[in-house]
Specification:
Blueprint (H helix, E strand, L loop, with lengths): L8 E3 L3 H4 L4 H18 L3 E8 L2 E9 L14 E2 L5 H13 L24 H5 L24 H9 L15 H15 L3 H13 L4 E2 L12 E2 L7 E2 L9 H4 L1 E3 L1 H13 L5 H7 L18 E5 L2 E10 L2 E8 L4 E7 L6 H13 L11 H18 L9 H6 L2 H11 L7 E11 L2 E9 L5 E8 L7 E8 L2
Antiparallel strand pairs: 1-3, 2-3, 2-12, 4-8, 5-8, 6-7, 9-10, 10-11, 11-12, 13-14, 14-15, 15-16
Helix pairs in contact: 2-11, 3-6, 3-7, 5-6
Amino acid sequence: MFRPALAAALLIATPAAAQQLSADETARVDTIVADALKSSGVPSASVAIVRDGRIVFAKAYGDQGPGMKATSPAAKYQIASISKQFTAAAILLLEDEGKLGLDDKVSKWVPDITGADRISIRQLLSHTAGIQDYWPQDYDFAAMEKPVTPRQILDRWAKKPLDFEPGTAWQYSNTGYVVAGMIIEKASGMKLLDYLRKKIFKPLGIDAMDQDYAVGKGFPQGNHRFALGPVRAARPAAHGWLWAAGELAMSASDLAKWDIARIDRKILSPEDWATQETAIKLTNGSDTHYGLGVSLGNRAGDKTVAHGGEAVGFLSDNFVMPGKRFAVVALVNADFGGAQDAITGGITDLLYPVPQPAPVISEDLYRDQLARKLFDQLRAGTLDRSQLTEDASYYFTAQATGDYHASLAPLGDPASFTARGKPRLRGGFVNRNYDIVYADGRKLIAITYAEPGKEGKFEQFLVQPRD
């Protein structure tokens, strides 16, 4: 059913748009994606990169399925829970219109769910409402074979006892977003997708659609896999199951246009963007690292705004560093393997590498290195007395240093210089001993004492024969 995973690859970025990635960077992006698809068995990926606030790369790889005439970066993949940030954005826009408030109680709009008089809209969007999630599984369950309405979801899951008191814990809840979607429709007087098209998609030139209809001819085929078995076509869930919690399908480039709006603070006001990107704190003061429909983090000092998505047969990842004016989108037509995260992570590391911190050297290792350095100085006759205490400097007379040099230099470099046993305290000093072995079998021992601490001076450094 499937052509080889990397048989078809197209670059549909104009030459001008692609110029900001060098030929080497483009080749390395290709390798990152190819490796992710090969190692995971995922059939295809669609990738978009934003650099300096504009799309500089858009490319599709692999086999998008029998519904596609050719592999295309214009193909619409189901982005699932990445849709949540659009639902949250709609709430923020409605607040600007004066039609609702983030801290309104849900009872004002949807009064017949558990805790409606205690849950705020802000808590719905930040997963702190306590409403039980209707889809925690990573597979489609039996009920998803039949269409569902938002009201049916709420009747089954949102009328159960709360999992916790609102604001006291964080727990991902698709159900909370279904409630938010119902509030949007009541406050706006429009269907959710119509409101998003009018306020967000049309102004940004985004061609998004209801993911329930992004199936069949002209759309990528979703896939799944059982353990390490063959990749198999996934049967989509019936209509209605993702809705306001994950209702959208779009191309990687269209999602990148939204990322650019985030970077440029367009469509939403700067204050609204800041609100969405502010981590919610629980009542005990702990940080959820989640805003309104987005996960928040830090990468080497740069703020990150990200979210993933999972639908039946699809996974997606969207990663933005607003301060760097950078974003990367990876959409794949499989609900296994993690290729999308490997792609966004690999591209981010390629274009914005994080400097590796200097290795932390333990005090014992550092002292061992100092001991070896002092031994080499004695061999060479170049003793650095700043490393010695007053008593040790007294011990190393001209005659002593001369004998050390004359007797050790002819032996050359030892084959090994290793710590013997563990450090121990004696007389206010730290005793460390070292076995010194030469290639011809000759063995020496260095018996050292030093002041405590990483920079402690040597009180003793005696080298003697060892049987």
